[in-house]
Amino acid sequence: xxxxxxxxxxxxxxxxxxxxxxxxxxxxxxxxxxxxxxxxxxxxxxxxxxxxxxxxxxxxxxxxxxxxxxxxxxxxxxxxxxxxxxxxxxxxxxxxxxxxxxxxxxxxxxxxxxxxxxxxxxxxxxxxxxxxxxxxxxxxxxxxxxxxxxxxxxxxxxxxxxxxxxxxxxxxxxxxxxxxxxxxxxxxxxxxxxxxxxxxxxxxxxxxxxxxxxxxxxxxxxxxxxxxxxxxxxxxxxxxxxxxxxxxxxxxxxxxxxxxxxxxxxxxxxxxxxxxxxxxxxxxxxxxxxxxxxxxxxxxxxxxxxxxxxxxxxxxxxxxxxxxxxxxxxxxxxxxxxxxxxxxxxxxxxxxxxxxxxxxxxxxxxxxxxxxxxxxxxxxxxxxxxxxxxxxxxxxxxxxxxxxxxxxxxxxxxxxxxxxxxxxxxxxxxxxxxxxxxxxxxxxxxxxxxxxxxxxxxxxxxxxxxxxxxxxxxxxxxxxxxxxxxxxxxxxxxxxxxxxxxxxxxxxxxxxxxxxxxxxxxxxxxxxxxxxxxxxxxxxxxxxxxxxxxxxxxxxxxxxxxxxxxxxxxxxxxxxxxxxxxxxxxxxxxxxxxxxxxxxxxxxxxxxxxxxxxxxxxxxxxxxxxxxxxxxxxxxxxxxxxxxxxxxxxxxxxxxxxxxxxxxxxxxxxxxxxxxxxxxxxxxxxxxxxxxxxxxxxxxxxxxxxxxxxxxxxxxxxxxxxxxxxxxxxxxxxxxxxxxxxxxxxxxxxxxxxxxxxxxxxxxxxxxxxxxxxxxxxxxxxxxxxxxxxxxxxxxxxxxxxxxxxxxxxxxxxxxxxxxxxxxx
Length: 825
Hints:
Strands 1, 2, 3, 4, 5, 6, 7, 8, 9, 10, 11 and 12 form a twelve-stranded mixed sheet that branches. Strands 17, 18, 19, 20, 21 and 22 form a six-stranded mixed sheet that branches. Strands 14-23-13-24 form a four-stranded antiparallel sheet. Helix 2 runs antiparallel to helix 8 (285-321). Helices cover 50% and strands 16% of the residues. The chain has three domains: 1-41 and 287-418, no CATH class; 59-277, no CATH class; 483-673, no CATH class. By secondary structure, it is of the alpha+beta class.
């Protein structure tokens, strides 16, 4: 009880004392808020992406089913597989399924932007334990008859955004792909499904798939293993383990899995089922961003150490000024332990205040980071409200930070010899300066490590951006179009009908004012949708290649140069015309070893295909990968692939200026023709590098922050030194030293501190680079973690900026009036 009362008194005294020194208090709080806020922001993102449990009933009991014949497990199932397993769930209570989908929605006759939705089984919401905020959920009765129950639930966000939270939305009809669906309920505000980062606006029964998504074939009746499009989630029955539940269900599942080997040979072995915990949901964000986020967590941890060192320097300077107070208290009988505790309480108060400010700062930073991560792609939605884990982390970091930066100054400040105050003060100052120099060197070394790391990521991003992608990004608009039946290729009459639709679309778009050229292709530069196929060369050798379908003027629209031969023409669009192809440089080089490719003939099955042109290489899927051998063919002459296409429009000026007219042209052809992924080519290419851009940008920001803190620490230390040595400076100048000598005396001290930090920092950076080379190799492109150019530039930048920070107190020292200094002394 006495200890608690003493701590309360110490707390009151600390708050009163800090309140009387507002400039010092604000300076420390600001420094700590930056360090703690940066750590809290990155930790909040990691928590939201990796660890936060789903907002459903008993999330710890959820499991995800996956399957595999080999070592790699896949999560997708066909509807027939799900149906069979659902009827005999074995060791599971029940099985629910869902599939993400892009839906074509009209409200009151007005076509909405492409809407993210989910097809869900009738027991999806009941299994998750999710209740509606209005209306009712999709039930098992809504998921019995194929295309029999056109009902839909909408998300709270869609309800607010599109219907203004009007209660009349329940029972209202909306159109999905031309079919009327009745809105029956609204999901809770926090619910987003099982996929972390997703934000579906619509939920419809799985058995409504053929109606809700008519551009795809009927996936309900397709043969087993045709398309694994459903994810399955469940709960394990009471008394069973995950392994037992999977073992009970495995034979039932394998009854619906073909064992015939399509390559010949013996039958394939049975597939295996595996159960994975699903309390935190599933997310592709973890694969994409987990490694950069953990690297950034290490970076902001170093920033916090620098902030602690900076704060410790301020406390050392303040302790020197309070040495008289401490001497009096010790002389009156206060124990050294009592003074240390008092000073630690002051430090923890400062750290907690900085932590509170850091949480407020982190809440803003995390939302900006999520918006940045979503650039050029489907918006990422994460629950970023601080939960118990984040608050515990911030509180622990704040308290540990207070102890870390407060302990050394507290011990130093209370080590006082009770002799005349002047002598005691001199010792305290000298001891404080020595400790301050050690902390300053540490700051410089850590800042250099961060600068080198940021330089590596920035140079890697520059190399990636500098890669010639072979396309003109500035004025090209991409719109994915998927007419009804475009996912079906083998049904007679489908391709000619699609070809007529596509030709009419190109004619209408080409007539729009401001459109320079337009074309269609089966893919986008970052979405590989074409198949690969083997071709027999004139030499008899076989060459595999990517075979995308395109229309004439594709290369001109994209800005891909024609190296030899000609482009496709209208005469090449007919399947009755001689089969022709255009190859890229990689195919020509690998297949013909320097011989001219134009005029050569390729054989595919029984077809002879003549090469009529060669185009420059352009990358697909990833700018890090080598360009694949590619054989371009026209839509009706290609023997593989489905019929979905992407419309490319090159505008005279901004692509956004023609977007509304492109939409109108599409609607004139087919009012219910879905439009997906509408964005510029620059945005799409930028989305590919979002991970690299995120880590390069944030590492630069945080290393810059660390450098600023280090320079502030250096400036503060030298300023304090100049003040304490003003008498010495006055004596030097009185004895004949000029201003340049005094300036150099202080600058030399600054440069020695920086040099010591560099000598320590470079080996540390090299050691960390070698230790982490395997982990960050995938984040660097075209250079190693020990790149000498990056290390040299970072060292030079640090030296110049730190020298500038040291020059200001040195210049002030050189202007000391010797008479005033000696008189004050």
